[in-house]
Design brief:
25% strand, 13-stranded antiparallel beta sheet, alpha+beta
Length: 260
């Protein structure tokens, strides 16, 4: 069973705009991008994805059209396995110092940043680092792009349940059963939970006039928590009302309990 179809995992670090996720497809990143990706530096992946750059010794993909095709191909891939960072200019890419190139190698090798994941000379907006167990680590220059992804993933996760519920309901308000996207205020309310690392349990959605998504504490132990989800700490419930097309969060979270 593919757990990513039944759960969404999020761990957020706003100090560096680092987000670890599972269950949020790369196409949501594509839709959230504020600016086109002009060039891509491949940190690691299958050979011959792009052209070899003699200066940095990395493969690169140049031009927005080629980058679009690269990302679209990654979206179609069952398991992402290419680590990459975008960059603005070939001229400034070739001004990277040996120390800065070493930092890129460190990113590739450890899936962690050394100083900052955002390089002045690259002017990058993203660092995408797929890791083990389908965990995707991304750094966002604009963290709002991640919140856009989460909101639309939650909407899309609920949509099949709401469509199914509407088919068996005689109520007039169910004729238009397109699910609304969670509002910015709801996503903002979720943020303290995301700092701790949470699992949204889509397998336990309740359909009784409203849709409920339990939220459990996972920290950085998502696989361990998923194996014993019934014993996990429940931090709250995300609730969607089809009648009012509104989301709300019922939270049992107390940051003082977690050192926040």
């Amino acid at each position: 069973m593919d757990l990513s179809q039944n759960y969404i995992y999020v761990l957020l670090d706003t100090t560096t705009n680092q987000v670890d996720t599972r269950g949020i497809g790369l196409h949501y990143l594509w839709e959230a991008m504020k600016q086109p990706v002009n060039n891509v530096l491949i940190l690691s992946g299958p050979k011959n994805i792009g052209g070899f750059d003699d200066y940095t010794r990395f493969e690169v993909i140049r031009g927005s059209q080629a980058c679009d095709e690269f990302i679209q191909q990654q979206i179609k891939t069952a398991k992402y396995n290419v680590k990459w960072v975008d960059y603005e200019s070939q001229e400034f890419l070739h001004q990277l110092t040996p120390g800065e190139i070493a930092e890129l190698l460190y990113l590739e090798h450890t899936n962690r940043h050394w100083h900052s994941p955002f390089f002045y000379k690259l002017q990058n907006n993203y660092v995408c680092l797929p890791g083990e167990n389908n965990i995707m680590r991304c750094y966002y220059r604009h963290i709002s792009e991640f919140f856009y992804q989460l909101a639309h993933q939650l909407r899309d996760a609920v949509q099949p349940y709401e469509t199914r519920r509407s088919l068996f309901s005689l109520s007039s308000y169910t004729r238009h059963h397109e699910v609304a996207v969670p509002s910015p205020s709801v996503i903002k309310a979720l943020r303290p939970l995301l700092y701790e690392g949470v699992v949204f349990d889509l397998s336990e959605m309740r359909i009784k006039g409203k849709l409920e998504i339990p939220i459990y504490l996972a920290e950085d132990r998502v696989d361990e928590v998923l194996l014993q989800l019934s014993k996990a700490e429940r931090l709250g419930t995300l609730i969607y009302s089809p009648r009012h097309k509104e989301w709300r969060l019922e939270s049992a979270f107390n940051s003082e309990s977690f050192g926040g």
